[in-house]
Sequence to fold (162 residues):
Amino acid sequence: MVQVRSYYEILGIDTESTVVDIKKAYKEKLLCTHPDKNRAVEAQNVSIEEIKEAYQVLVSPSGKEKYDRELADSYKKQGFYNGGEGLEDYSLDEFSYDPESSEFHMDCPRCQMAQGFEFTESLLEEHCIERKEGGFYVVVQCSACSLWLNVNFDVAEEYESS
Ligand SMILES: [Zn+2]
Fold:
């Protein structure tokens, strides 16, 4: 099933965080004394049990490594799905395109992960869903947090002829 929140999200850190960062984030989360408003709001949605669980896994280098692998696998499986009602809409134009690798990417607007959104042109074609009102969309997830986006686009002319 779709994982609602990664341990990184629970602690408000990214996957590059060091043990020191993780310990710091853990203390801040538990005490809820961080002056940053967004973190304080986030903290209200997370239970102490979740924070402790996330911390215990991530603070151990081997635990973090194992978790990172599991997370990467689950994101690979979840990378595209077709139930994206009510998600935030983005236009494909907002993604940068690398013609060499045929990949689109964008930094995550929520967790700020560099190229948190990344997908190839062929995946786009394979997973696109037609809109009744015209055009297409795909649903993609950030590789670092649980943010899903609708990416809207019109069919490029080169796909229409065949
Ligand atoms: Zn993200």
Notes: The radius of gyration is 18 Å.
